[in-house]
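FYI - complex with NAP, inputs then prediction.
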Amino acid sequence: MSSLSVAIVGASGYMGAELIRLLLQHPRVELAAVYGRRAAGQTLPRVFPQFSGVLTLPLEEFAPDRAAERAELVFTALPHGESAEAVAALRQRGATVIDLSADFRLRSPDEYARWYGSPGHAGHPAPAQLAEAVYGLPELYRRELAAARLVAAPGCNPTASILAVAPLLARGLVAADGLVVDAKSGVSGAGRSPALSTHFPEVGEGVRAYKVAGTHRHTPEIEQELGRCAGRPLSLLFTPHLVPMARGILACVYGTATEAALAGGQAVLQQALEEAYRGEPFVHVLPPDQLPDTAHVRGSNRAHLGVRLDPRTGRVLAMSAIDNLVKGGSGQAVQCMNVLRGWAEETGLGATALFP
Ligand SMILES: NC(=O)c1ccc[n+]([C@@H]2O[C@H](COP(=O)([O-])OP(=O)(O)OC[C@H]3O[C@@H](n4cnc5c(N)ncnc54)[C@H](OP(=O)(O)O)[C@@H]3O)[C@@H](O)[C@H]2O)c1
């Protein structure tokens, strides 16, 4: 069985480390090269001691020519803005790219400019590549991903929120107007670079909301995809929270129950989720007496979902727990690779949660 040569750009970050961990368990992949910026010149075990005795690859300075020569498929895990340039250079050299940044997730260049633009960078930095990007959520885009050459893998907040409520919107059980997404995520979501706002004593004993009232950059991405499910554009309120744990995200999506949901009750909501995700290898709708918990998906590519109708207020609560670094990031990217290579989606991703 021939193996696929892959490389990782941004291998010295959290997404990079998680990609390496997952790819080491993948039977059809050979890790050909890893690239870092400040970490370039060091060996992997020096940067990530968890790989001591397993891998001695050196982290190199990224050069697109060399990377495209050595790898057929490249994962890019750089900050937004930085990723676009690397992706464009790799695509121009024929490599297939799975990008973990936000640079290719918004379809409209104007929306990208609005949320990610800066005075020096008014438009989208790589519009040609934006046009070919496929949104990397296999549960919604499996067919398109099979032929993709550039995948825009969604981040943790959009993955958790979209999976929770997409089938309910698509089936007209939740109103498209007035959705509220309340997400609680672990500190690794902010990446590996130290900052005061993510310093242990500053987050260890508290919980706080951040980037509230329509200011978080994941808002338009969630709106874009849920609008597609609802069949029309929508706007929603997204409130992310930082909680004192390393990994995990729990999204609670609140919506107004439609007549159909009120008439069918809890059973129709449960059935809608179960039907939508029947046969999905990673999305599990919990039985009505269980609730999603990040501890039960930690380290795995699994999403646990639950739904409740509150007939008293006429509201629906759709819940989802994932590991932000796996189903919300690197695991999803590996799942996308499996889809586009025509391999079983579970390949290399079979692990259940690291629990307790
Ligand atoms: N963390 C999550 O839960 C998560 C989930 C989904 C998607 N994402 C997205 O994935 C990407 C990577 O996230 P992360 O959490 O892995 O971040 P991270 O831990 O901060 O790592 C960032 C990586 O990019 C490199 N880098 C930083 N600035 C650079 C620049 N100006 N030019 C070139 N390379 C640069 C770093 O290299 P050095 O350290 O060697 O300088 C490092 O390898 C981001 O776009 C993020 O939004 C993150």
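The CA atoms of residues 223 and 353 lie 30 Å apart. The first strand starts at residue 4 and ends at 9.
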